[in-house]
Specification:
single chain, 6 helices, rod-shaped
Length: 229
C-alpha cells in the first residue's frame, strides 16, 4: 500500500514538472530536458503494478516472491537515482538554454505569430518585460517597425487598465527581465522534483532492507526438540 501511495505521489510530481516545462518549451533548446520527469512517470507506473505483487509475496512470506520483489525494488531504486542525477545535470543546463534561446524568440516577435503568443504569455505570467529588463525591447525589429516608442501590453503591470506600454511611463511597466524569472522558476520546479525523488529513493532503500529481513528469517518448522533426562 505504501508503494502504491508513493506511485501516486511520483505521478503527480512527474506530471507537474512536464506541465511546467511544456509551458515554456520555446525557451529550452535541449529536447531531453524532460527526461527526468519521464523517468519519474515510468517508475510510478511500474511501482503501482508491483505494489500488488509485493503485498501478495509479503502476506504469503514466499521467498521466491520476496526475492523477485527485491530485484524489482532495486531496479526502481537505480532508476530513481538516475533521475536524481539527470535532474541535477539539467538544472544547471536550464540557465544556459534560457540565455541562448530567449533573445532569438524576442527577435521573432511581431505581435501575431506563435512566438509572440508564447512571449506575451510568459511576460504576463512572470510579470516581467524583456530579456534582462524592459529596455531590451528597443533593440528588436518589432520595436523599430512600429515606431511607437512602446513595448507590448503584456509588459504592463497587473491591474493597470489604462497602460499603453509607452516607455515614457516606465512606472506602469514590469521592469524585471524574463530570463532571470524563468531560470529561477524552472530551477525551483526541478529542485522540488529532485527532493521528492530523493525522499522516495530513501524509502526504497529501507524497503529493500525490510524485504531482506523477511527473506532471511528462519522459518518455524513447528517441531520442538525433545530432551531426555
Amino acid at each position: 500500500i505504501a508503494f502504491q501511495a508513493a506511485a501516486a505521489g511520483l505521478s503527480y510530481v512527474g506530471g507537474y514538472v512536464i506541465n511546467t516545462y511544456k509551458s515554456y518549451d520555446n525557451f529550452l533548446q535541449d529536447e531531453y530536458a524532460l527526461l527526468p520527469a519521464v523517468i519519474i512517470i515510468c517508475v510510478a507506473i511500474v511501482m503501482f503494478i508491483i505494489g500488488l505483487i509485493g503485498c501478495c509475496a509479503t502476506l504469503r512470506e514466499s521467498r521466491v516472491g520476496l526475492g523477485l520483489f527485491l530485484a524489482i525494488i532495486l531496479i526502481i531504486f537505480i532508476a530513481e537515482v538516475s533521475a536524481f542525477v539527470l535532474g541535477f545535470v539539467y538544472r544547471e543546463k536550464v540557465k544556459t538554454d534560457v540565455q541562448d534561446t530567449m533573445r532569438s524568440v524576442f527577435e521573432k516577435y511581431d505581435g501575431k505569430n506563435a512566438e509572440s503568443t508564447v512571449l506575451n504569455y510568459l511576460q504576463e505570467q512572470l510579470h516581467c518585460c524583456g530579456v534582462r529588463n524592459y529596455s531590451d525591447w528597443t533593440s528588436t525589429q518589432w520595436f523599430n517597425s512600429t515606431g511607437k516608442n512602446s513595448v507590448p501590453l503584456s509588459c504592463c503591470r497587473q491591474g493597470l487598465s489604462n497602460c499603453t506600454g509607452s516607455l515614457d511611463q516606465p512606472q506602469e511597466l514590469n521592469t524585471k527581465g524574463c530570463a532571470g524569472e524563468l531560470e529561477s522558476g524552472l530551477q525551483s520546479v526541478l529542485s522540488y522534483a529532485m527532493l521528492v525523488i530523493l525522499g522516495f529513493a530513501i524509502v526504497k532503500f529501507f524497503g529493500m532492507l525490510s524485504v531482506c529481513v523477511l527473506t532471511c528469517k528462519r522459518e518455524d518448522t513447528g517441531y520442538q526438540p525433545l530432551y531426555s533426562g
